[in-house]
Amino acid sequence: MTDAALEDRPISKSIRPLLMLVPFITPYWRTLVLALVALLLSSAAVLLMPMAVRDVIDHGFSQKLPLKLISTFSCSWDLQY
Description:
The chain is mainly α. It has helices at 3-8, 22-25, 29-59, 66-80. Helix 3 runs antiparallel to helix 4.
């Protein structure tokens, strides 16, 4: 389509045309679920990393809390990889 044709086209407010894709997606539902789980885990890892760095900045590398730092970073490391 040309740019002029796209500009003249009315904006659709229905998602009904997307329902036509369901027969093509259903054979791959496991892959879709796995992709969504991977997306959620990677998002959680990205959100947890600043919290782990904050603990390092707040507590430093003191002898009192090495286990807490190890557990914090190992948890975020497990979520990333």
